[in-house]
Amino acid sequence: MKERLIGIWRLVQVTARDPEGRVIPSEFGPAPIGTVQFGEERMMAALGDSRPPAEGETRFWVAYTGTWRFDGQVLSTRVDAAHPPNRIGTDQVRQVRWEGERVVLSPPPRMVQGVMNHLELAWERVG
Hints:
Radius of gyration: 14 Å
Strand content: over 45%
CATH topology: Lipocalin
CATH class: Mainly Beta
Domain Lipocalin-like: 6-107
Number of domains: 1
Structural class: mainly beta
CATH architecture: Beta Barrel
Order of helices and strands: EEEEEEEEEE
Strand order of the largest sheet: 1-3-4-5-6-7-8-10
Distance between the termini: 18 Å
InterPro entries: Lipocalin-like
Protein name: Lipocalin-like domain-containing protein
Number of helices: 0
Shape: globular
Helix content: under 10%
């Protein structure tokens, strides 16, 4: 199972939904960018909003790396370096489903600007 994830993946779509299932804007913007690389034991992900930030603001982005495991449905990464740093020492858990050759990763829901967000991040293999 793990072998299916090993490689380099490009982020192609981020879909955010509210608790009622309606599509809402995501922090990643309308044209998200990102790459994730899975090796035998370690992974690294960096992703963010491709839009230039408004004056006085910083661009939204996240990155983390660590050891990972995959049971066929759940991907869990033990984070040892990250931005934002509050992820260091945590387990980043993602539900995994396949849509053809794409993999869709779904983190646990979280509150963003007062709205509970359910994210789906779709990735295509590039290497």
